[in-house]
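Reading is simple: each integer encodes one residue's backbone shape. The lines below illustrate:
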Amino acid sequence: MPSGRPAEVMQVRVWSAVNRRRTWMLDAIRTRLWPVPTMAIAVAIVAGLLLPELDQMLDGAMPAEVSRWIFGGGPAAARDLLAAIAGSVMTVTSLTFSLTLVTLQLASSQFSPRLLRTFARDRFVQRTLGLFVATFAYALTVLRTVRDSDNGGTVFVPQISVTVGFLLAVISVITLVLFLGHLVRLIRVETLLGSVLNEALRNAEASLEQLDESSDNHSAPAPPRDAVPVAGSGTGFLTGVDAQPVVGAAADAGAVVALQRKPGDWVVQGTPVALVWAAGGGRLDDDDLSAVRDCVTDAVRVGDERTPVQDIGYAVRQLTDVVVKALSPGINDPTTAVHGIGHLSALLCRLADRRLGPSVYCDDDDVVRVVVEGPHLAELLDEAVTQPRHYGAEDAAVLAAITRLLRDLAWCAGSRHHSAIDNQLTRMRRTVAGQDFDPAEREMLEGLALATEEALAGRWRRPDVV
């Protein structure tokens, strides 16, 4: 390794680990409905406390041109207005929550339960709820500062604060109208499929770039027979692996760690998730083995649901679920299934020229220390095609869409993926042969299959364009 490069590689790895943890944290926040409304309530309360102080400082000192545009009523009018704002906005908030819950229920039953994250992380929904609850909290906070002379006190009407409350109420009404329109667009299947595809491409870009940086022409070593298993500490989906700390612990112990489970796999507490062995052969010291085992346990993140941060196959599962759901007898929507297969085709074609499979992490001396399993394109292709082919076997349009997926992927993928595509094409032909299609449908499907074979044979050349 050239001199000076270890420091650069180490710096890149540190920043990659920091960015990965930041991505995990942001994903955890963005996929929940409560953080944005909670922060909005806090800001509203602070504003409701500070603006009346500003009102008191400027009481009687504002120019007539400014006073003409702000609230000019007395204490009773101010109380009535703030109470009306608080009551009406709370009603609107209840309506908004009800519509959101109905939308989530519809998406779960009509499309897939795994699409609920797409709704929960929608920023417009979060900000709308935040605006409504903030307006409510602000109105209540300002209401307590209005004073009259009934009890012999000094009359005080926070004119600026009441005016701000009125503006927030108007903005809330406008936002409600926009929210309804946004909700109608959000529940459209085309919007859902596009959202899943775009999020998958963004996460796959970042994740696969890290794989490219960390695995520089190193092959994954095969675990020896005497490798020591490391058991998982929790039960759930493997949501991510923070490999950099494990690299340091493995380097200190002179060990190699191979994660046997990839992000998205189901892990049961007490079952092996990794194998550890000495890099140069022999047996690891008990203290070193214990240190590496503890580091692996801390680095493996397990959750109740899959997340797209490191799980490349999660988006394939989401899109496939939509296709399978559309082909169920209760829904019977083959057009949606065809659209979903088209989005699967776009995703797989973008992944075809990326480095998939296991990622290899080396220490500063360019020695392999950690291997993290990852899905191969053949696995992703099988997950995207097998169930739709099975449940849509009697629909020629669905089988045609799957064959077009294979044709497009054959055009985009390199020769290393051709065997997987050819295997799926053979299985597709067997499915077609077992159906009672008319001659025109068989001719159409066979034409698509021949076009796929031509792409696999190199009859179509991929143009040198970006």
In short: The CA atoms of residues 378 and 417 lie 7 Å apart. Residues 31-187 form one domain. The mean pLDDT is 86. The chain is about 65% helix and 10% strand.
